[in-house]
Specification:
- This protein has 189 residues and is of the alpha+beta class.
- The chain folds into two domains: 74 residues, no CATH class; 91 residues, no CATH class.
- Helices cover 28% and strands 26% of the residues.
- It has six helices and eight strands.
- The strands form two sheets. The protein has a five-stranded mixed sheet, with no helix packed on it. Strands 6-7-8 form a three-stranded antiparallel sheet.
- The radius of gyration is 17 Å and the shape is globular.
Amino acid sequence: MTRQITDRLIFENKEYYLNVELLEDYFREFPEKRPEFKISCTALWRGYIAIFEIKNKELLIKEIDWLTDVDFKMKSLKDEIFPNNKFEWYSGLIRIDDFRGEFDKESENGIFEYLQIENGNFIQKRVFNYEQLQKFKKEQYEYFLLSDEVKIICNFWRKNNEEGIINKESLNKIIFENIMQYTRKVYVD
């Protein structure tokens, strides 16, 4: 599998490479907003590179460049897709620490940093050691299962589980393992 070119985030004058694609859920919800290009690249299946910035306590889309030809020429479409710059649609946790690694592994000696965003507004930076993170994830998962948010995830998996391979127990395990990515609302102080 070819490693994908990642999106980036600028926070407090430092640039971070993201292990998540913040725009993909937006384009799944609003497929008509995704520009159509016939060019594909094994290192950029989604077709674009986005740069985000947190400035004045807002999550901004600084740039979004789309792959337009095989010579890796890019075209900026930020003003067409997101003319007001603020990514108001996004709520969730964005991991920015240096312990992420390729697949966001959580080493027991790590310090984990997340930016909490609600409707495009920066709320706070959360810093955890390994034990604190595990406790936070467990509590967040328990509240998540009681929330309306869980229906969205269950519907997504139901649509993508036509063969019936994933049962409720395995789905709950998937949710728990990915709670930091699935969370759109932070329930734990």
